[in-house]
């Protein structure tokens, strides 16, 4: 890699990880459109680590309260709102964890075609629009039922299909279950934490099994830029989502999907 590639990939990861536009699609597309070589496993770890640090830092107060309440609930068997939210994050991660282990190889080889990305962007963009316009409610993340958690968790497994967007599909499912935009987005971001941890774990495992030279300078810049851009993205997305809604992201997904079909079909 060179420094331009490092900066662009880190910013793309940070900006798109938490927007409903599919970070994996953009990270696959950048090398395809630029003819850059694959950035390698080590740099993938750095990009994911930056996103993880950003979401943990942003929700640090929520995570502290959730962790304390969750630990207390193990003793009292009487979970409060924060403990139930912690349990929801843990249980909502199980479906995507199982699906990732079962279909990892297929996803990394068969489904990385630009046309698959285009299909995922367009189809799940339309579904997001439908959820936002017709099914959005007023409930918060603290008012979820276990049925809501199951539906959102199973929907998250669909994000393994490139172009779907992990945040996009979980926000869509939450909207379908009657949550408001801010609550759907906040739960989606909290739900990303164990998923990114699992993704980093798998990448590190692969990195250990197939050792490659590690360029520590590129790694450090990747973590820093991806973390800063992801933090700012979370902040401004949550600040403006009630006002702007999901339609700008839907339009972006559809236009990008059409462009990809025009280029690669």
Descriptive tags:
mainly alpha
Overview of this protein structure:
The chain is mainly alpha-helical and 265 residues long. The model has no long low-confidence stretch (mean pLDDT 91). It has one domain (3-264). Helix 4 crosses helix 5 (81-109), helix 5 packs parallel to helix 7 and helix 5 packs across helix 9. The protein is 80% helix and 0% strand.
Summarize the structure.
80% of the residues lie in helices and 0% in strands.
Describe how the helices and strands are arranged:
Blueprint: H1 3-16, H2 23-34, H3 41-58, H4 60-76, H5 81-109, H6 114-135, H7 146-157, H8 166-176, H9 181-209, H10 216-244, H11 247-264
Helix pairs in contact: 1-2, 1-3, 1-10, 3-9, 3-10, 4-5, 5-7, 5-9, 6-8, 6-11, 7-8, 8-9, 9-10
- The domain count comes to 1
- Helix/strand-derived category reads mainly alpha
By DSSP (H or I, 4+ residues per run), the number of helices equals: 11
Strand content: under 5%
Shape: globular
What multimeric state do the chains show? single chain
Question: What is the string of helix and strand elements?
Answer: HHHHHHHHHHH
- Termini separation comes to 29 Å
Low-confidence segments: none
Write down how many β-strands occur, each being a DSSP E stretch of 2 or more residues. 0
* Average pLDDT over all residues: 91
- The amount of helix comes to over 70%
Rg value: 18 Å
């Amino acid at each position: 890699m060179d420094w331009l590639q490092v900066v662009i990939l880190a910013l793309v990861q940070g900006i798109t990880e938490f927007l409903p536009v599919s970070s994996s699609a953009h990270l696959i597309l950048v090398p395809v459109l630029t003819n850059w070589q694959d950035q390698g496993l080590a740099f993938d770890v750095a990009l994911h680590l930056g996103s993880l640090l950003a979401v943990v830092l942003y929700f640090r107060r929520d995570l502290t309260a959730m962790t304390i309440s969750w630990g207390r609930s193990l003793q009292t068997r009487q979970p409060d709102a924060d403990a139930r939210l912690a349990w929801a994050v843990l249980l909502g991660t199980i479906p995507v964890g199982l699906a990732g282990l079962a279909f990892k190889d297929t996803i990394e080889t068969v489904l990385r075609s630009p046309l698959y990305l285009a299909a995922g962007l367009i189809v799940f963009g339309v579904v997001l629009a439908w959820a936002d316009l017709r099914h959005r409610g007023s409930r918060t993340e603290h008012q979820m039922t276990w049925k809501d958690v199951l539906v959102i968790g199973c929907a998250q497994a669909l994000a393994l299909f490139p172009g779907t967007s992990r945040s996009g599909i979980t926000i869509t499912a939450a909207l379908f279950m009657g949550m408001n935009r801010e609550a759907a987005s906040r739960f989606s971001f909290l739900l990303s934490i164990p998923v990114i941890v699992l993704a980093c774990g798998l990448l590190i495992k692969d990195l250990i099994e197939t050792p490659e030279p590690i360029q520590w300078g590129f790694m450090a810049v990747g973590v820093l830029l991806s973390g800063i851009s992801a933090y700012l993205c979370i902040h401004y997305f949550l600040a403006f989502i009630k006002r702007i809604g999901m339609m700008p992201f839907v339009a972006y997904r559809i236009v990008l999907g059409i462009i990809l079909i025009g280029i690669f079909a």
